Amino acid sequence: MRFSDKVAVVTGADSGIGRATATRLLTEGATVFAVDVRHTDPWPEAVAERLHTVELDVADPAAPERLSARLRAEAGRVDVLANVAGVLHIAPFLEVTREDWDRVLAVNLAGVFFLSQAVAHIMVGTRTPGRIVNVSSVHAVVSEPNAAPYTATKGGLEAMSRTMASELAPHGITVNCVRPGATRTGMSAPIYTPQIVRALEAKIPLGKIAPPEWVAAAICYLASDEACYTTGACLDVDGGYAMDGSLPGTAYS
């Protein structure tokens, strides 16, 4: 029950890593504001009294103020913000349009920046030593062909998080990233063909594609008091994908 009496905000909370994170926080005692464009799956009745669903598009310029107003009215403070919401657009670099680029950056980078700013104002105003955890991707450091806007946002997110960590440290607020590798979510499902799955399992040293709960566990660690002396860091949760330089199926002799 690491999060008893804590108030947490999770974006992208209707599915995937966001849903797993919100569920883990609820299980450990938090009151959770679950943010997503829409909520399609029901939540267990057992957590209903500690769950607030918020229908919000993080890319909407009005979203930060709307979320802030609701948090101030219904909770009064925020202890944890997990920025999980994200979109992926698959297209060759030579074919990406301005509209494609703008949408991915609006959700994955600008949305994180301005929602974090709004929540940080609440944390500072209430003198809460809060935790902000941003979800990056292994593709911040490992190229992903046909996903240039996505990789740009994840690299930018990590750089931005370090600056946020520096500026918010005097207020006792930590800012960290989790860097997932291959994870089974609604966003990844369309591209995880049998061929891709076989290739990933051969490439990943631990040989598995992660369920979202494994990534949620890392997010909740960085959101907890156990990580009180960690800020500006990025935790790999990728089965060894990014660090491994071996050639699958071969070895130097």
UniProtKB/TrEMBL annotation:
Transmembrane segments: none annotated. Pfam families: adh_short_C2. Keywords: Oxidoreductase. The keyword Coiled coil does not apply. It comes from the Bacteria. Gene3D superfamilies: NAD(P)-binding Rossmann-like Domain. InterPro entries: KR_dom, NAD(P)-bd_dom_sf, Sc_DH/Rdtase_CS, SDR_fam. Residues 6-181 form the Ketoreductase domain. Belongs to the short-chain dehydrogenases/reductases (SDR) family. This is SDR family oxidoreductase.
